[in-house]
Each structure stands twice: as C-alpha cells, then as structure tokens.
Amino acid sequence: MLCAYQNRPDYIADYVRGVLPEDEQEIFEAHYLGCDECLANVRLMEKATLTMRHYGATIFAPPLTWLDRLKIWWDDLPLSQQWRSAIPAFATYIVIIGVLSTGYWWLKSSLPAGGFGHKESGEIATPAANKSLAELQHYDWTQPVPDITDPELVNRLAEIQPIYQEKNYPLAVERLTAVVQDFPQSLEARLFLGISQLFLNHNHTTDAIQNLEMIIQSHPEHAAARWYLAKGYIKINRFDAARQQLTALKKQNDHDFGPQAENLLAKLNNFKK
Amino acid sequence: MFLPNFSEDAGKTRPLMIDREWIASRREAVKQYLWKKWNLNDHDLEEVLQETMVAALQSFDKYEARNNAEPGTYLIGIAKNVVQTYFRRRDRHERRRASVEMAESIGVLFRDELEAEELADFFRKKFLRLPKKYVQVLRLIYYQDYKERDAAAEMGIPVDKFYSLKSDALKRLRKLCKNDPRLGP
C-alpha cells in the first residue's frame, strides 16, 4: 500500500515537534508503527530536531572562512581512506620539491659561474654564468684624446671610434691591436683595445687583462682601466684579484667608478659569505 | 491540517496481515512510540517494551480490525494498556508533556554523545549548501523555537509562504540526510 505520508516531511516534523492535535498524533502513531518508511522518517526528524535544538549555536553559526570551506570540500570528496592519506602526502612532496627547485634556481641565478662549491680561480667560467657580476657596460668613447699628439694616431683613433661605438668589437680589436703595435705608449688605444677584447668573447679575456694590467702598472690612478680589469678578473673567476682592484678603485674616490666599485665589492663579499 | 485518507472502504471489517513475524518486526517502532509518547527510558522502557511485545504476540489472533484500521492500531492499543498498568503499579503517570531533551535521547536515538556531535557537524556542512531562506526557516523553528506565525513575521513574509518554505526546507533536509547511515533507518 502506498504510504499516505510519503511526501509529507512537514507533517512528520510537526508530529516530532508535538504540535499536531492529539487525535492526529494517534492516527499517525498507529500508522508509523506499521510503516517502515515513516518510522525511519520519524527517527530522522527526531535526530535532526534534537541536534538542531541542542547544537543550534554551532550549526547555525555565521558563515565559515575559506579554509573551513576548503576542509568541508575535502571532507565531502568521495575518496577512500588510502587516497585521503596519499593525496596530502603527494601534495606535500610536490610543494617541497617546488620550494627546493625554486631555491636552487634562485641561488644559481644569483651566484657567479660554477654554482655551489666552485673554485674562485684557475677555473674557466662561461661569460653567461657570471653575467651578474661581470656584466660589462659599454664605456662611451666620446672623443679620442690621444695622450700622444701624433697626427697619425689621432686620425686612426678617430677612424676606430665609430666602429667601437657601433659595438663592432671584432673590427675594433683588429684595428686597435694594430694601433697599439704602432703606438705602444698610447694609453687610450690600449684601454679601448682591452675593453673591446673583454666584450669580444671569452678567448680574449686574458689578452684584455694583460693590456689593462699594463695601463695600471704605468698609471695606477686610471679608474676606467682598473674597473674593467676587475671585470676581467671576475670573468675568469679570479675573485680575490678583482676584490683588490675594486678596493683600490674605491679608495680612489672616482666620481664615476667609485660607487660602482663599492656595489660590486659588496656583491662579491656577499657571495664569499 | 492534512489527514491521510484511509477511508476507501470505511465501515467494513477486513482481516489484517498481522502475524508473529510482523509483530516481531515492529519492535523498534513500538520502542520509538513508548519512548516518545510515554517518556520511558532505560529499564522502564525495556520492561514495558518486552511486556507489550509479549502481549501482542499472545493476542493477535483475536484482533479484529474495524473501519480499515491501520495495523499499528493493534500495537498501540496493547502498548497503551501495558504502559498504563505499568504506571498504575508504580503509582505514577509520566506521559510526555515537554519536548524530548538531548540527554534522554542518548542510548535511544543516538548511540552516544559523539554521534550527536558528529551529526551537528554534518548538519553544519550540509546547511552551507542549502538556500539561506531554508536555513533561516530551520533556525527559527528548530533552534529558536518560534511558532510558524512568529517566524513568518520575523522573516517578513506571509504565513502561507512560510509554510511552503518550511515544507520545501524539510524536503531538502530529508534529501540531504537520506544516504547518511547515522540518519538512515
């Protein structure tokens, strides 16, 4: 027989609350004593009513935070106990790997060539690897001021100046090498030869250092030469030598290179720690 | 108030399918009735339940249903006699007047307090998915103990609209609870 109370949860709820008239209560009681479905609904409503009355403060509390909602969402997912344990473990593993990878990448990108535990000298580093320390700035050759007033030197430097400014370093190196051979005493020619060699590629770094060292030996106050010499040392990972040059440059109080030397020295010292 | 219609063949007497098995299967229903209606608990409840079941099994073959009565009428009649005799013997009458309290439902409705707390947590989560109006209806009626008329006034809606909302809210509540073993049959 179809139950007459099948779609009447409000009627059953009223019975549970005790708000039905006495005669209706008895009719319904006579019914649910013989009806499994209504008995189940009575028990459900009894439990729900009691729970709502007794724990109403909790059940009807103000809305939850996003964290609580996340927890509820998680609790409601149809997962077995094994998955409930496995997923957080896997997520934790992924997070740890992510943090470690990010940390490694960050450290690697902020350190000079070779990464962790590399030697500071005697080991060739790629220019890209120590880019953050040895990044070269184009030193502007505004006007050739040859220290030797030979008209030929003046003319040749004037010819090379646009080549250098166009950053055509291979050609600049070729021409400046010839000039330095012809005018070995010219500081200007040697300086721009050294800088061009530094810019050119790694194979020319040693030559660049030789040229710049020669300038410093004869003119220790030459700030630009000292600055690029320090950069050259960094390119080949001779950090102690670079520190010495930068310290000396700092002491010179050069308006252009002094502050840059101080910054680079601080970077180098941080790296050492 | 709605009354179910059992009067298709009112006035006639028809045999009911009452037998020993059926009576034995109604034990939990009788227990629910005695607890709810007669405020019996623990030892009293078990004793009256036992006496009712024995009496029902002894006399079911003499029972003749009239006016297409529900089979449960037979059990209620016996339960009433047994419980009243029981009260008379102890010189007390304890038919339930007030609402059921949580403490007296432990062990009868709820396995223990933990189950009740779990259900509270369950309802809190489920209610987040109900429309706010339904939750408000349930809160006013079942937590704050409002009468329907007052609750409608509180919500600022007509009473008939409130009844309709309450009916819908209870249907949703029943649907939410349907598959939970703690609330199942």
Keywords:
heterodimer; A: 273 residues; mainly alpha; Serine Threonine Protein Phosphatase 5, Tetratricopeptide repeat; 14 helices; 69% helix; B: 185 residues; Rna Polymerase Sigma Factor, Chain: A; Arc Repressor Mutant, subunit A; 0% strand; elongated; disordered N terminus
Number of strands of chain A: 0
Question: What's the overall geometry of chain B?
Answer: elongated
Strand content of chain A: under 5%
Average predicted confidence as pLDDT of chain A? 82
Quote the distance from N terminus to C terminus of chain B: 27 Å
The number of helical segments of chain A is 14
Short précis:
Chain A is built from 14 helices and no strands.
Describe the protein's architecture and organization:
The complex is a heterodimer of chains A (273) and B (185). Chain A is mostly helical and 273 residues long. In chain A, helix 8 (151-165) runs antiparallel to helix 9 (169-182), helix 11 packs antiparallel against helix 12 and helix 13 runs antiparallel to helix 14 (257-272). Chain A is 69% helix and 0% strand. Chain A folds into three domains: 9-59, no CATH class; 66-110; 131-272, Tetratricopeptide repeat domain (Serine Threonine Protein Phosphatase 5, Tetratricopeptide repeat, Alpha Horseshoe), CATH 1.25.40.10. Chain A contains 14 helices and no strands. Mean pLDDT of chain A is 82; it is low at 113-130. Chain B is mostly helical and 185 residues long. Chain B folds into two domains: 20-89, Rna Polymerase Sigma Factor, Chain: A (Orthogonal Bundle), CATH 1.10.1740; 111-177, Winged helix-like DNA-binding domain superfamily/Winged helix DNA-binding domain (Arc Repressor Mutant, subunit A, Orthogonal Bundle), CATH 1.10.10.10. Chain B has nine helices and no strands. The radius of gyration of chain B is 20 Å and the shape is elongated. Chain B starts with 19 loop residues before the first helix and ends in an 8-residue tail after the last helix. Residues 1-15 of chain B have low confidence and may be disordered. The interface between A and B is large, with 51 and 58 residues.
